[in-house]
Amino acid sequence: xxxxxxxxxxxxxxxxxxxxxxxxxxxxxxxxxxxxxxxxxxxxxxxxxxxxxxxxxxxxxxxxxxxxxxxxxxxxxxxxxxxxxxxxxxxxxxxxxxxxxxxxxxxxxxxxxxxxxxxxxxxxxxxxxxxxxxxxxxxxxxxxxxxxxxxxxxxxxxxxxxxxxxxxxxxxxxxxxxxxxxxxxxxxxxxxxxxxxxxxxxxxxxxxxxxxxxxxxxxxxxxxxxxxxxxxxxxxxxxxxxxxxxxxxxxxxxxxxxxxxxxxxxxxxxxxxxxxxxxxxxx
Length: 283
Prior knowledge:
Elements: H1 10-15, H2 34-44, H3 46-51, H4 60-63, H5 74-82, H6 85-99, H7 102-112, H8 115-128, H9 133-150, H10 154-165, H11 171-188, H12 198-227, H13 233-243, H14 246-274
Helix pairs in contact: 2-6, 2-7, 6-14, 7-14, 9-12, 10-12, 10-13, 11-12, 11-14
């Protein structure tokens, strides 16, 4: 399952993948049971999308102004503990049990279980697990440049795909909220000192919103071009049309909210745990 792609900026490299309160998502009239939700995560590839959140932890110190290797070898242990993939999947299942309706679950599962859907999930899973996002971005940008020179319709298809994946237009605000929560948690834990208060930080983010939106759109195009380069125009077109269907729109709105909340929650926990570390020491 293709989630909103990260941008090459430090903020979005850290957040990867990449926040609305879970309480804001209305409960489904008929929630799905745990076994079906777990199967849904696997067939759609959302389980791997969740696992990829952990890859973003490596750049977290950079976001706070530290050198990536400043905390010594135990940084890996700390980040693996905080971004425990089993815990993140368990939290997602718990939320989706109460929010994902049967119609949307069945619709999305049926598409991703088709021959085309299975190939798409394999490609998306492989893309999610590429640790160096810059490699994917550079390769994707080269593909986009070639498509533009050819006058290919694929660029417009990828733009439609990005709009369908984030139909509510929440991606930029969600990324900013994750950043805000991470920085405030780090300041509260004494890891950093902020020159701005919460109101000032929000005002600064508001000023940067336009640039971030453009960066996110460009990054989404590059990620899509890289991920789907082996698919035909007809297959990409079919995927776009499937993503634009109403049940799939409900699925993505919910899964985006779940992914954002889990990411923000884990980065807040990471900020608090970073207080245990001492820069420059291998502790």
